[in-house]
Amino acid sequence: MATNGNSSLINSHFSISSVLLILLAISPSGSHIITGYGFSIREATIDDLQLAFKQNQLTSRQLVEFYIGEIRKLNPVLHGVIEVNPDALYEADKADHERNAKAPRSLSGLHGIPVLVKDTIGTKDKLNTTAGSFALLGSVVPRDAGVVTKLRNAGAIILGKASLSEWANFRSLAAPSGFSARGAQGKNPYVLSVTPCGSSSGPAISAAANLVAVALGTETDGSILCPASFNSIVSIKPTVGLTSRAGVIPVSPRQDTIGPITRTVSDSVHVLNTIAGFDYNDKATKSASKYIPRGGYKQFLNAYRLKGKRLGIVRNPFFTSGTGSLHAKAFEHHFQTLRQEGAILIDHLEIANIDVILDVTLSGEATALLAEFKLSLNAYLKDLLVSPVRSLADVIAFDNKFSDLEKIKEYGQAIFLASQATNGIGNNEKAALLNLKNLSRDGFEKLMRKYRLDALVTPGPDAAPVLAIGGFPGINVPAGYDNNCVPFGITFGGLKGSEPTLIEIAYGFEQATEIRKPPSFKP
């Protein structure tokens, strides 16, 4: 089955010699591409781009042309993008016209800024929304996703669809992170042989490699925080309901959240400021909107607000195994930096039943997600205006029919089959949901309140399940690179609605350390 022209173009096969030439061209020693006005786009922040717009050093058309050029050059290696929007240049020209006419919305921070959205986020345009699967190719969504509506209203340009772990990593136990049938295998731009992590691999790959400055990802459990950590990117996993999930291919309405993936904390905050808020198509946004501070989130971008912040450290298991133990020296240095900036670190804490929380089977998370996925996906598919599949059962049948195309024979569809075998929210699922609620209440929530913590500090995405099962927010910031130049991050997690405090902490840490560097594209 052929994809559309854009997808075919950006995922075309290159010879080994072509790949080597590309890697040479994009290595740190290679020259940066500069516009005719002397402004360097690569690594530019949203504020940099807006200033260049204001000073007539750059237009949105030039910016889109630059990113399309980078996608054409790098995507055959990185596979971070599935489709480019054929109307992106038209949207750029429209933004330039609005800026020249001094239209009111041209004052928005994201006006004229291209954005890549994960291929689970619906767009009512010429782009497909497929979760990386051929089963949904040609489907037509009834409307833009809620977050896309907010982006368009702010004047942002939808540049295209970013790749992902197919079906948000909820089809197969064997498929590698970053792989989808439509998008191929995503590559980590720092070390190509290392996982980009998933499921929001494409947004992280693309932002890291300067295929775009701004991308949107989704998370059910780790899918924003993990790719951000592995690709040396900043990401915000918002409180569940703070950003609308309407029009997004779901896994679990109880845990799903949509968040920014960018190169800096300030850029992620620009995006969160735009996409947070009420959407009548997602009832969870009504209650979560109470957390949005008057005046928005940009006011918390202050490098000197670490002073007095109470940060909790749970050594076991986060710093005795995994990422934390591998990079113990770096994290000890970070702890010292946080102290020097005025933060109060409360060390050697324990989260009750942490071993159970981190085991999706013991906690009941797997039981709950399997049932929720079938119910929510069937509802999503039935709402599509046009679709080759109308239920999870249809998707399974499609994948069986086109098993070579979808790599079913190799990777299987164990999660799909287990989900299809569920029958709504029965006694087992109710027991699992109650257990998850109790684990959050007696574990993370109790710890945060007992010690009056502003945030829990953990390595990379290691605490993702702790935040996921309770709908809690987290921010990942680059924390370093190992001896092979593989990135790792640090995550600050908090209670529901604590984004303002987490932004202050993450921004303070970022400004004090300035760790992130452009990718090295090592083989």
Structure in words:
Residues 1-31 form the signal peptide. This is Amidase domain-containing protein. Pfam families: Amidase. Residues 63-465 form the Amidase domain. The chain is built from 24 helices and 13 strands. By secondary structure, the protein is of the alpha/beta class. It has a domain at 33-300: Alpha-Beta Complex (Amidase signature (AS) enzymes). β4 (179-180) and β5 (184-185) form a beta hairpin. The chain is globular.
CATH topology of the domain at 33-300: Amidase signature (AS) enzymes
The CATH architecture of the domain at 33-300 can be named as: Alpha-Beta Complex
**CATH class value of the domain at 33-300:** Alpha Beta
So, the CATH homologous superfamily of the domain at 33-300? Amidase signature (AS) domain
Ends apart, CA distance between termini: 30 Å
Helix segment count?
24
Percent of residues in β-strands = 5-15%
Helix content: 40-55%
